[in-house]
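dumping this here so i dont lose it
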């Protein structure tokens, strides 16, 4: 069992200043480095995945963390700065669920581009149906993962392509993937329809009606997070030289 970084008995939403002091005290107590100690409860492969961003002198972006959680299938507790409070978003990739103490409608109605990752750790909370019932949270606070991932891809801070799908590549929507229940503007719905039939590169997608570079990149990120994107590096259309997914 991995102990949560949040102090035992702390309220669901603590002040960011208090949380930062707690992390600093924890690092001083154990003689660890603040940039990496927050990842030590994760599996080695996932920790290495997330440390790529720390090594470039950047903080992990929320969409990068969510994408890594989906790829590795590991439940994560992601502590976020939400105004001046700490909001914990727990994701369960295998069950395709999230948990949040604040109503998800309230979170998704806020400025998603202002959310900042403070801490990432292995989730101690469990998904509904887990045999350790004492670790399962309030069932009304669990929500489908897909709409949350989609909203953060569309309106979160990251507009650039995720590293895993950036560079010289061509894209197509995988057969049978459903986007039902997602907030899908008409222009993006038309793009998805075209990508179901044709493999296209980023430059082509940017030229479609109602789509610019930012919207195209957000769309591809969103499709990827729904496990619906086929990425080809060898297709003749893979000619995106000079289009970087990094900021």
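and the seq i came up w/
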């Amino acid at each position: 069992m991995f102990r949560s970084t949040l102090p035992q008995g702390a309220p669901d939403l603590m002040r960011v200043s208090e949380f930062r002091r707690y992390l600093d005290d924890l690092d001083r107590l154990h003689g660890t480095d603040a940039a990496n100690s927050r990842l030590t409860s994760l599996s080695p492969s996932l920790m290495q995945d997330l440390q790529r961003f720390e090594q470039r002198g950047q903080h992990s972006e929320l969409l990068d963390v969510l994408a890594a959680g989906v790829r590795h299938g590991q439940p994560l507790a992601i502590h976020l700065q939400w105004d001046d409070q700490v909001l914990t978003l727990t994701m369960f990739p295998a069950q395709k669920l999230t948990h949040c103490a604040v109503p998800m409608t309230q979170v998704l109605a806020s400025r998603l581009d202002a959310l900042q990752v403070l801490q990432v750790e292995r989730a101690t909370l469990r998904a509904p149906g887990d045999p350790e019932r004492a670790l399962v949270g309030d069932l009304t606070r669990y929500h489908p993962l897909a709409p949350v991932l989609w909203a953060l891809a569309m309106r979160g801070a990251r507009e650039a392509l995720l590293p895993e799908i950036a560079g010289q590549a061509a894209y197509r929507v995988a057969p049978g993937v459903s986007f039902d229940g997602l907030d899908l503007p008409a222009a993006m719905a038309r793009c998805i329809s075209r990508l179901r039939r044709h493999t296209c590169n980023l430059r082509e997608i940017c030229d479609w009606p109602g789509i610019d570079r930012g919207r195209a990149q957000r769309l591809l990120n969103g499709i990827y997070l729904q496990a619906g994107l086929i990425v080809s590096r060898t297709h003749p259309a893979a000619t995106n030289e000079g289009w970087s997914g990094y900021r």
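The chain has two domains: 16-155, 163-232.
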